[in-house]
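thought: fold this chain, then report.
action: predict
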Amino acid sequence: MDTEAQHPERDPSSDEEEGSRSARVSEPLRRAPSWRRTSLVGGACVTFLLLLSHFVMQPFLIPSRSMEPTLQVGDRILVNKLAYRFGSEPRRGDVVVFDGTGSFVREEPEGNPVTGLLRGVGASLGLAEPAETDFVKRVVGTGGDRVVCCDDDGRITVNGVPVVERYVMFGDQPSSVPFDIVVPPGRLWVMGDHRSQSSDSRDHLGNPGGGMVPVDKVVGRAGWVVWPFGRWSALPATDAFGAVPAPSAGGHGAGAHG
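observation:
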């Protein structure tokens, strides 16, 4: 007697139907890992850019005319955050981004924390305007320097030497506000290149710190214009301060005038 089990015959059409159902069910499952991979890659890219922006190189959107003609409204610059991390300090002529809290802004303005977080992320990626406490200006005086406006020819002097500032906006005076200050150690006297449109150290002489920015509040040095593409370039160095001597140890401080 044959005891081997006999396999019933299957309808070929049922096999095709089952295969079709199986394909329909498994198709989303095959797609799902692709979406997850895309999400993971996208998240990793954003995380990498945020880390790069926080520690190394941050894009910065120029929101005002204060640095014309060097920087235009809408320019996106790259700020080198490592420029002053290893013992180096800002030098006269450097274009720097800094946190003005305590010097240009008395206290950080309050706001919606969620909106602030989103804006901070956008600013870190160069997609939104910077925080209200962030500024971009040119260093004109460093610790110990005596900066005076102006000599008989209308030029700013630093440590007694007139400075020819070719980067200043055409038609602007070096300053319409007279001043005579000595920069304390560890601080910077900063000014915009478009002097008539710039709120800078001159406008904060009566504030705590006398309008001078602590070096440790400097975010980094502006190095390149990266947008729009037609303006893609490195920020040019200036030789305006090449003849300025080091400050004398016995320099005299003076209050601001005007």
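thought: worth noting. The first helix runs from residue 12 to 55.
final: tokens above.
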